[in-house]
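thread: overnight batch results

M.L. [08:02]
morning all. the overnight job finished for the chain we discussed friday. pasting input first so we're all looking at the same thing
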Amino acid sequence: MASHLCPYVSLPGTAREALAFYRSVLGGEVSTSTFAEFGGAEGADPDGVMHGQLDTPSGFTLMVSDAMPGMSSASGGNIALCLSGDDLEQLRGFFDGLAEGGKVTTPLEVQVWGDQYGALTDRFGVDWMVNASTRG
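M.L. [08:03]
and the structure it wrote out:
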């Protein structure tokens, strides 16, 4: 099996809601495990998501969990999740869906390098970039 990179987002008690939202935008299947299923963690909500995973039809894997007490959670920072490809219609749909309830920082439009690119922060505070290549 080849190695691959899977973004892992830690949220302040909203992992289940975030996974449902991301599934509504990106499609795919969600699986979750709670803290209680693994014996709990000191100070963590037993029904909280210890590990959640979304596997999409496009081949994306996104992992999400509820932050344990004392752990940091998504708040912008120096990381952004980037969706890129050459299917503008699909990527525009992802961009528009992720922007619902969030804040667009760069509209999805043609940029100086020729691609359509946009950036946003979603309703959970996660930064996203979307780049649709126009070069063949």
